[in-house]
């Protein structure tokens, strides 16, 4: 299991022996891993595997029972505020002040980080420039997701936590979100995302960790994991065709964003 | 066959589902059952029909056997709430202030001889209250008649010489205005905070803020400051309306009233935070906030004076936060007292502020 893709650069996330349980359930059972700076790292796993709890601990939104978690060199349990200043968090079900428009929301959020931003430019980067004066609840699902991502960028973070960034999006919007994430990587940001879509993990992630019942049961580059599976004798039931139904959909409805 | 019909009939099963849904709605149950029960109990306990005594001030400048007899006779008639320890000047002022309905002045030499002067008492009465004034005068006259009869000199009857005075007669709206101002401050603080804060929580907006480095104190300060500003504006609007449209006289200092509005606002905003800390969702917060606000609305002297309530109830009601606020604003706005005279009410408010602040800090959660 390769822990650190580039041993010369200090990992931006270091987790060692993290443990968290609730009264009747062990959510995180001694998890250890590292994420290198500039990586796109995916955490996969069934619901209840402990992904969300692990990520919440790294974000400083939940306390762990024991173990160490360093984010950007900061012990997140000792100084969660310092960590929050340099990261961006996209929660799955995001909500924003309901009587402020998008522009005003971004300005308030920027001021929380004591930064000044150009709200229209930020909205433009997620193709919401024309909705600057709209209220959050007036947006469609896809637009809400895009705005949510935009709100994580107000403090120009080095590390982004994205929780299921494309759940509920149509194929165009999903592809658009993938482009955004690839853009983040080009900008030198690190991305830690959770997802249920294997295709997404394959497409975006440099490495993935698969969690189950509170433990990491596999961690490597997606291609390496697939090769290992084939080596174990796995045979796919149906041969891959040259195109699939999603290709049909995109071909017919086009690759441009619909909203 | 009827059984089968009941089990599969869509109308019947929808009805059953509807009943189930309704009876699980705590807010609806509160408004439908609890509230009317409270209303009936409160009004049942209070007795509006109770006869209110007439406020009589007595100044006995004669202090002889006859005058003392007159006074003790008047006492036994049990129709008056008597004050007889003040000087004439004080009693006259009390009458002007509206604290007496009549003042009886017995001049020196009363009843000592048969001259007209000695067979007369002076009664000054509030001409704005004809019922109480004339009733009071009849009663005093009948007490005088008793003495006339006892002395046997029916030709030299004891009489009243009466003088009307233009007292300050408070209308219901004069009484009501400070009560409504205080009540509005309570409602705004309690409901506005409890509802909106709980909504922020349940919608996940607070959680989104928890993901930022914002300090809870910053956020709470923003909310509190906004609500207190609204309290002040509310008070200005209500007082402005009463003065302009209803000719209410604001006797006291407006700034003093605004200061009280600010302190009162603080108490109820803090209470709102305590409620929202306790309740996770709107359907717990709503009945809770109402259960706190409604009894206070009725028992704190907003719409009617607390001294019409039974003693036991009054004892509890006097210590409610809204009671302190109502009393303080009423004293300043209507009676023209200065704000320092309200130190006891202000102390009560600060006490409540400390308690509710402590609770809200302990219970505060982002989600």
Characterise this structure.
The complex is a heterodimer of chains A (259) and B (367). Chain A has 259 residues and is α/β, with parallel strands linked by helices. Helix content of chain A is 34%, strand content 24%. In chain A, the strands form two sheets. Chain A has a six-stranded mixed β-sheet with strand order 6-7-8-3-9-10, sandwiched between helices. Chain A has a four-stranded antiparallel β-sheet with strand order 2-1-4-5, with helices on one face. The relative contact order of chain A is 0.17. By secondary structure, chain B is α/β, with parallel strands linked by helices. Helices cover 65% and strands 8% of the residues of chain B. Chain B is built from 14 helices and five strands. In chain B, strands 2-1-3-4-5 form a five-stranded mixed β-sheet, with helices on both faces. In chain B, 33% of the residues are buried. Chain A binds chain B through residues 59, 61, 81-82, 84-85, 89, 91, 93-98, 109, 112-113, 151, and chain B through 203-205, 207-214.
Key descriptive features of the protein:
heterodimer; A: 259 residues; alpha/beta; six-stranded mixed beta sheet; 24% strand; B: alpha/beta; 14 helices
Number of helices of chain B: 14
Instruction: Please give the alpha-carbon distance between the first and last residues of chain A.
Output: 42 Å
The tally of strands of chain A reads 10
Adjacency order of strands in the biggest sheet of chain A: 6-7-8-3-9-10
Count of separate DSSP helical elements of chain A: 9
Order of helices and strands of chain A: EEEHEEHEHHHEHEHEEHH
* Biggest beta sheet summary of chain B: 5 strands, mixed
Low-pLDDT stretches of chain B: none
Strand content of chain A: 15-25%
Indicate the radius of gyration of chain B in whole angstroms: 29 Å
Could you tell me the number of beta strands of chain B? 5
Derived from helix and strand composition plus strand pairing, the structural class of chain A reads alpha/beta
Q: Oligomeric state of the chains? A: heterodimer
Strand order within the widest beta sheet of chain B = 2-1-3-4-5
Query: What is the straight-line distance between the termini of chain B?
Result: 52 Å
Helix content of chain A: 25-40%
Report the largest inter-chain contact: A-B, 18 and 11 residues
Order of helices and strands of chain B: HHHEHEHEEHEHHHHHHHH
